[in-house]
Structures are given as structure tokens and as C-alpha cells.
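S.,

As promised, the flavin-adenine dinucleotide run. Input:
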Amino acid sequence: MTNLFIFNSDFRLADNPGLFHAAENGESLVAMFIYNPKKWDSHNESDLKIAFQIENLKSLSKKLSELKISLKILHADGIEEESQKIFEFVKSKNIKEVFINKEYGINEINRDLNLKKKLASIHINLNSFDSSVFHPESIKTQSDTFFKVFTPFSKAFRSKLLTKKIKILGFPKKQRNKVLESDEIENLSLKSERKNILELYKADEDYAFDKLDEFIDHKIHFYKDKRDYPAIEGTSSLSPYLTSGVLSSRQCLFRVFEKLSEEEEGIRTWVNEIIWREFYKYILFHNPRVSKNLSFSEKYDDFPWSDNQDHFIAWSKGETGVPIIDSAMRQLKSTGWMHNRLRMIVAMYLTKNLLIDWRKGEKYFMQNLIDGDFASNNGGWQWSASTGVDAAPYFRIFNPITQSEKFDKKGDFIKRWIPQLSSAINIHDPSSDERNDLGYSNHLVDLKESRKKAIEIFSNFSK
Ligand SMILES: Cc1cc2nc3c(=O)[nH]c(=O)nc-3n(C[C@H](O)[C@H](O)[C@H](O)COP(=O)(O)OP(=O)(O)OC[C@H]3O[C@@H](n4cnc5c(N)ncnc54)[C@H](O)[C@@H]3O)c2cc1C
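Predicted complex:
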């Protein structure tokens, strides 16, 4: 009577519905991780994120062993191979039932459908669980359709929170017998500078939970006032843990409401961000177009994006001549993470001032972020490019210099990443002479002119 649980993107023991239910009968349980570099590559997953998940798995492996749960590593070559490999494993090990947590990308939905069919042919159940706060089908408009705008979605979400108190699950039950020897977990080979970045993020479920508690006990009260300033640590920095499911959105909300009242604005603002995360997953679930490399809004299918590769490379290297953009891109390269305000500024600059396809920026972010999350990343990029659901209107283009003056007033963030600008008189936009003297790039494009051009082109597509 052995069950099988497959880790998809929830690398935690607590509040893990698939794992919890797989362990319920208490006899024997095998947990599985699928090592699939071809899939990671085709989904543009960053090596940092995968290495972070593997480190978390190692930490989980010890805890699973104490619960007498074996951990097996299955190798597959592409997502299409996963269901067949799992099916063969199930047959060869005499598995009774299979448990997973659902993922909402189109490839993952198809893989699970395939697996379900194969398992049904040998009379085995695939039990899939939802690890979002509310199942995407359970939040509807009054006319029984699905939301496309955040504010009414969040209202519906919050009223559901009032009527349906969040419950979280405990740890999986200790098993009576450990049936298989656990496998050694293979490391992902990382270049030495990437290894150094990985060390910035401790991979451990208890650590993530303590980090959440620390945020709720202190910083959350200042969140509303501090969250937009990249030079200070005013946000929770929990995104790597949420993306890899080391922590769940449900645990975050449960803990906030257990300890605090939402009447305080800072708390309400942070809860709203967790709801944004759930909103983008909801959008992914209801709109398969989003997983097909297409704009949410069909009218942008033939948009004349620029294919200026030199501009794209300059942007990605942090050499655009706009200090706030260049420092943000350098932060991403050196830490695998970027502040939210900066993500919006660099994305808008790429898609509006440079008119480069948002998909190129989306891919570059996925390949470099430790918290690269398909739904949130796609949502953030399409918001900035004005092609997405509830997106920024195309004519409201951020001026990166004004943003810099407002959110990095003293230039502390810029100085950290571009030290040669420390002595600049106008750190947000140095004069040409100063750029020459300090060895800093000139503007790649004129900000006013490029803004005007973007508005003209977008207005033709928005009719
Ligand atoms: C172009 C672009 C790309 C982005 N790509 C990603 C991505 O790949 N992965 C990712 O997790 N977030 C992404 N975001 C959202 C946001 O920038 C990050 O979640 C945030 O910076 C993480 O920092 P934090 O954990 O300190 O967040 P906090 O401000 O403390 O917020 C708490 C949590 O709420 C969620 N959250 C916050 N803001 C957003 C948002 N705008 N959309 C969705 N969820 C949000 C995150 O899970 C975050 O960890 C992107 C935003 C933009 C504009």
C-alpha cells in the first residue's frame, strides 16, 4: 500500500495538500522529484532558481527521512516524457495512488491529463490538489464570468476571505515503513559567481517561515511607506520562497490574520500584493493564450516591435545611459533579484522607449531571476507593455529620470551599483561632459522623442 507524491513547485512539508493527503493512510509513501534539464531550458527557468529548489529539496530530504518517507529522483528528457516515466515507475513499484499539486501552465495541464489517462488504464487514481488560496474556478463575477480587472477581483477575494476562513494543513503523517532507499540529489552545475549568488538565499522551510514572521512582527507596519524605495529593504524579500513554494500564499495570509488586524493600511497593502500574485495565477488558469507566448490582448498580435539587438543587449547589460535602469539591471545580474519598482521601470523602458517586444524582456527575467514565476512575470511584463490584463494605459509611460528622482532621491541605490557616478552633480541624469569624465554611457535613445514615438504607434493599435 505505497502512495506516490510528486514535487512540482511546492518545496515544503507544511501546508502541502498533495503531500499531506498522500501521507494520510500512514503506511508507506514515496516522494519524487523529476530532474528534467530539457524542460527547465525550454521554460527558460534560471539555473539559480532550479539550484535553489534543489537545495530546498536537500533540506526536505532529511525531514522526509525522519518521517520515513523515501525521496526518489526520476530523470526525464523534456516535459512530454514525464508522464510515461512516472507511469513506468508506478507500475514497477506497485504504487497504489499518485498525488500531485496542480500547476496552471498549459504544458503542465496537458502532462497531468496524460498521466491521469495512463494511470486510469491500470486502475490507479491521480489525485490532484490545488495549493492556491482559492481555486481559480471559485471566484466569479456576479454575471458568472471570470474577472479580468484586479480591483473587483480583489474585492471578491477579500469577501471570500471573510466568509471562508483560511485553514492551513500541518505536516505529513509519519509512515510505518520506509519502502525504498532515498536517492542522492544531484547538484546543478553552477558557475562560481552564480554559486556565490545562491549563498544569499538560505534554502530551508523553517528559515522561510521565520523570515515571514519577522516581517509580520516588524517591517509590515512600514511597508506602505517604504516599499517603493529600492535603496532600503522595505519589502519582505519572500518572493524566492513563494515562487518555489517553500512558503505558500495561504501560510502568509493565515499568519498575517492570526497576528494582526487588516485595519492598518500597511498590512492591507501587503495583503494586496499577495492577492496580485493569486490574481496572475487566476489569469493564467482562465486564459491559455498567456501560456502560448501570446499577448493577453489579441489586438497586439501584429504589433511592430523593434528588433534592435544592440539596444536589447545594452539594456540587459545595464548600459543604457539611464542610471536607474542600469543599476537595476546590474542588481538583477549580481543578485538574481530586482526590486518591484525597478522591475516596472526597466520593463516600461524596454517596451516603450526601446519598443522591444515584452517577450524578450520576460524571457531574460526568467533566465536570471531566482524568483522567476511564470504567472507573475508574464503579468508584470504585459502590465508594463500595456498588452496585458488590467495593464498600464499605453500613454502613461514612466519617465525613468523622474522615477529615479522620486524613489532614489539621494541616488543611494545608483551609487551602490554604479560607483563611478558617486561624484556626479546630477546622479539621475549626468550631463554629457560628466558622462565623458566619469566614463559612463550616453543615452541609448532620447527619452522624450522615444516616448512620443511609442504613444503614436500604440495609439494606432488601441483603437
Ligand atoms: C516586469 C515584472 C516582472 C515580475 N516578475 C516576477 C516574477 O518573476 N516573480 C515574482 O514573484 N514576482 C514578479 N514580479 C512582481 C514583484 O516585482 C515581485 O513579486 C516583488 O518584487 C518581490 O519582492 P518581495 O518578495 O519583497 O515582495 P513584497 O512586496 O514583500 O510582496 C510580497 C509578495 O507578494 C507577491 N507580489 C508582490 N508584488 C507583486 C506583483 N506586482 N505581482 C505579483 N505578485 C506580487 C510576491 O509573491 C511577493 O513576494 C514582477 C513584476 C514586474 C513589474
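The pocket of flavin-adenine dinucleotide is lined by residues 227, 235-239, 242-243, 273-274, 276-277, 280, 340, 343-344, 347, 365, 369, 371-373, 376-377, 379-381, 384 (CB under 6 Å). The chain has 21 helices and five strands.

- D.
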